[in-house]
Every structure is written in structure tokens, then in C-alpha cells.
Amino acid sequence: MKKILPILFPCALFASLFMSGGIDHDSKSSGMRGSDFAVIRSNNGFVLNPAKMAADQNDLYLYSTYTRYFSDVYLAGTQYIHPDLILKNQSTGFSIATINYGEFVDYETGFTYTPYEMALSFSQGYSINEIMAGINVHYIYSSITSDHRSSAFSSDIAFLYSFMDGNTVFGAGVFNVGFQTDPYYRTRESVDPLIRTAVSYRIKNIPVTATLQNDYNIGDPDKFNLMAGFELEAKENLIVRLGYDSRGNDWQIGDNNTSEKFGGLSLGATILISEMEFDFSYSLNGGLENRFSMSAGIKLNKFIK
Predict the structure, then answer these.
(1) Residue 172: beta bridge partners?
(2) Which of 4, 54, 161, 187 could disulfide-link to 132, CB 3.0 to 4.6 Å?
(3) CA–CA dist 230, 240 (Å, integer)
(4) How would you class 122 by CB atoms within 10 Å of its CB: exposed for 0-12, middle for 13-18, buried for 19 or more?
(5) Alpha carbon distances (Å) from 266 to 145, 209, 249, 286, 300
């Protein structure tokens, strides 16, 4: 992909630079269009909600994700969960993720750029009576050109509380609280905090979980992002998902094709095989190219003693 002004594309994709809460680290989550903040599963994608780490108290777990956004823009990342590493009966997580924005050419100078961002994350879960809590600490490095490089630190804190015999879960958190340590060639970018609230409900006698979530970007106070989803345990080794993101209306450009009519929807599935799981998701992005994500995870308890 060859364009002028590559600095515009990270902002178009994720609302602002260093928006760690706005990218797909987990194909389970993207299959529900990111609406699973309050869904408690074993071996969760902890970067999107570190409070879920309080539920992962036994498994050594390795999880890798690849997400293709459009053209040659993609994310690749790996997460690792280790129980009892710092706190007894609590899990600690480590993550590395990179976003490659493709190749750009400045037609005035002929220079070729390959912008990318890399995020290193540390996560810790902790149980406070019946409340699950967790924190993330991120170091993010961004390179647009050799003259436009920057880095930032940010942190997240999240909480989950389940009631009604565990069938209902409420979650809340503050994400992307941080600062830029050095500017892009004398230009500083904002690190906008994000407030996230969510609820999930597991329907009695039916293996279906429904979710509703709201993301509020403090840097854009007039914009609310609502998401909803369903997760169905179809079989013992198969889980299917459906999600919707209200931003789908903003991605319409007037083509009126199938992708645009259903913009904002996503589909996903998990296949479980012994100690491994394989996750897939496909998201319709209206006038933008559709997004595909796949992940693979493995429990390492049998292999690491």
C-alpha cells in the first residue's frame, strides 16, 4: 500500500496513536466485536481485560494471534499466562504485539516508509473477596519514519463482579491512562483514556451468553461506542459467536453492497482439540475492507512441570 502521509493511517484505524485498548489482541473478542469485556472464561485474552486474570489460577497458557485489517496492515501478537508467579493463587501475564502498517511512498522525495507499532505488556490479576481485579502496564513504541519515532507508557485497571449464581457479570475499567515519553519530531500526540463498562448474562438452561458494552473515549466526549454480542456453546468442542459494533454506521460510503449493509457485524468460532484451541473471526467493516483474525492457544501444564 503506497500513500502519502503515513502518519494519518494509525489515527484512522484506532482513533488515536497509542490506543492500546482499541486493537485486537484476541480473536475470541473480535468474534463478538469486542463486547466480551464482562465474559469470564478460562484462559482469557487478558490484555483486553486484566481482571479476567483472577479467574485463571491454574493454567500455564500460550496464545498467539494474527489479525489482518486491510491490504497489508496486520497485527501479530503472543500472550503468556503464568499462575503463582508473583502472588499466590493469582496469575501473571506477559504480552508482545506488533502492528505493521504496510509500505508507504512519499512521492515528493521518493522515500519508502514502513510504519509499525510494538507494545510490550505486563498484567496481574488479583481477587478481592468476590471482586476480580487486574492491571495492565504497557510500553508502546511507534515508528512512522526514521525521523518520526516515539514511545509511550500507559496502564489499565479493571474490575469484574459476578452475581445471580454467577449468571450475571458486571465489569468496568479505565484504559489507556498514560503519557508520551518523546514526541514525533517535536509533535506530541494525545494518549486518550477510555472508560469501559459492560454486562453479560448467561441464559438459564441454554448455553448462551449475551453481552452489552459501552466504550467512552474521554478525548472525544460526544462519541459513545456501543457493542453487543452472543456466545453459544454449540457443542463440547465448538463455540460460535456473533457481535455488533455501533460504529458500523460510520463506515458506510454509499456503495450499498452486502458488506456495507451489515457493517459492524462480526462472526467467530472456537474449535477445541485436547489441550489446544483455535479461534477465528470475520468482521464486516462497511466501506472499509473486512477484517479477519485467527488465534491458537495451548495449555502447557502437561509439558512444563
Answers:
(1) 159, 197
(2) 54
(3) 8
(4) middle
(5) 33, 16, 14, 11, 30
Q: What is the pLDDT of residues 46-58, one digit of tens each?
A: 888 999 888 766 7
pTM: 0.84
- 173-200 burial code (b ≥16 CB/10 A, e <16): bbbbebebeeebeeeebebbbbebebbb
Give the residues of the chain that fall short of pLDDT 50: 1-16, 18-21
Is there a contact between 176 and 152 (Cβ–Cβ < 8 Å)? no
State the pLDDT at residue 102.
Answer: 80
The angle at the Cα of 230, spanning 228 to 236, to the nearest 5 degrees, equals 160
The residue type of 242 is L
Q: Which three cell numbers stand for residue 263?
A: 457493517
C-alpha cell at 260: 456495507
* Cα angle 43, 201, 268; round to 5: 55
Q: Which three cell numbers stand for residue 5?
A: 502521509
Q: Which pairing describes strands 104-105 and 112-113: parallel, antiparallel, or unpaired? A: antiparallel
* Distance, CA of 47 to CA of 32 (rounded, Å): 16
Three cell numbers written together for 87: 502472588
Nearest to 93 by CA among 122, 119, 65, 120: 122
Task: Find all residues with CB under 8 Å of 5, minimum gap 6, and list them.
Answer: none
**Could you report how far apart the first and last alpha carbons of the chain are, in Å?**
46
